[in-house]
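Assemble and predict.
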Amino acid sequence: MIKISEQPLHVQEAIDQVSHSEAGAVDVFIGTVRNRTKDKSVVRLEFEAYEAMALKEMQKIATLIKEKWPVLAIAIHHRIGVLDIGEIPVVIAVSSPHRRDAFEACKFAIDTLKETVPIWKKEIFEDGEVWVAAHP
Amino acid sequence: MKLNIVLFGIAKDIAGTSRIDMEVEEKATIANFKTKLINRFPEMEKLASLAFAVDTEYVNDDYVLRENEEVVIIPPVSGG
């Protein structure tokens, strides 16, 4: 239930993948493309991935979560390519018997993804472009 | 010995290409390679971080490189 795709992501697909008869909660994180960074208007985002490694690192996050929390299933989907304002670069869904574990695991998943998974985001402005977080 | 270097994100923009060859000494480590890389592309030193991967796994500074190994340059990641 780990996926990198150039096609639009579907939130329901991630939810369906973690559906479980023992689940009392499904927590979903949806990342969306924001129209501003600081005071600059963003036109679009471009994502690229070192795909083979990114999939492995995403799988490691799912494995680690299953060691840390009693979750039932995890889906992590990331989109690459060109995304317009409002589109969805990432969807994470976690199911667990009780809501607290799903909330905590889902937050851990997106926080860790942003630190370890080799995916890069370029913000395109009307007057230029910048690789996000590249410089201190 | 020759290494096959693969670059992504801003590292690719700095090098102007996604693949380059680089020469390092026998038994060079990632730390040795990093010094050579920054000598060739000084802009890489200004990045918030610079990591390396071999065979789809992160490697540390003391990793010993082999002839023709593929080294992937991982500039600061920004997924999500």
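The helical segments of chain A are 11-18, 51-68, 99-116.
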